Sequence to fold (404 residues):
Amino acid sequence: MEALALVSPVQSVSAAEPSRTVARAAGGDVSAFEDLYRTHLPRVHSLVRRMTGGRDADELTQDIFVRIWQKLGTFRGDSSFTTWMHRLAVNVVIERFRSEQTRRARLHDGEAIFETLAGRMETPDLGMDFETALEKLPDGAREIFVLHDVEGYKHHEIATLLDISAGTSKAQLHRARMMLRKHLK
Amino acid sequence: MEDLWTGRLSEYLDDELSSDDRRGLESHLAGCDACRETLAELRGVVSRAGALPARPPAADLWRGIAPRLDRRGSVTAFTPQVHRRFSFTLPQLVAAGLALMVMSGGGVWVLNNGGRATSLPPLAANTDPNVVPAAIADPHYDEAIADLEQALQAGRSQLDPGTIKVLEANLAAIDAAIEQSRQALATDPANVYLNSHLADARQRKLALLRRAAALVNRG
Fold:
């Protein structure tokens, strides 16, 4: 449990999954599923909050756990349960973005927004903590930063997930880092 | 102030530069204080991001999740037919098991005797595009079945004898269907109907065992 208290790249999660709990939940045991929910809630909610900039994070998190419940029967153990669950969570968040039909507009608008925000962040509010600064990034850059630097996805994976080129992913990541570097205090 | 190399610093950090570019950037870094400082800051951002603590939401979200699980459980997600079967009475379950056995045997017999296999619809075609039919040799499926059978055996005393009897009859019928399909597939491995039939029977078994294990857990 304690190992899950810190967010680290998905690939580095090494805690052995309580496979019995997962199996019981997959069998329809709600109390076992609640155990999984309690264990993984901080990570899932943090992932959602960071990817969305805090918008509708609670509602999306609930949707994700309902989806996990629905899909548990398809979990075959090819990856760890944590990895499987986080992939599913990321997909739900991205689906939500796509359903808003603003993904491409946000990524393209991000170019202009970057300039505005970069100017604003050149004189950063030093009282602003890192998480708050992260929330203020343009949507596209924030998603890529969270997926790459927080969750450990590779650029080619991000490119597939977000339907963009790996080059765009790299460029947005660099710009996000450049803005965030002023908020390390 | 940004120079030509500043925009490549993240790629350098992530070890994504070609060896030539890497050498060029390192040469530049040796003489550029600003880029060295920026690189150190970017390294700090990456390090910080990797150590961000996970925080739970301010309010517990379970109350908004639990009510949605009853009607959209993992069992129903596996195959929609399972949901309807749960409302059957015990005699209906017995009849369903027998019907499955008879239909399975009949279907396989027809195929083995030159019948028009493609004219027969699958017994219960899976309409859920998310469901991946189990392969014939699938260690994960076998492991899941073994786990569920073990859980069921351990909690057997929690079920009433009538339920156990029905359960065993249905499992036997499904096992017979699986075995018949396997035997038929041994001589006609590419037959679409037989493969679909086998996958369906295996999913029925998994769903039935899951349902039984849930009964045990609730008991």
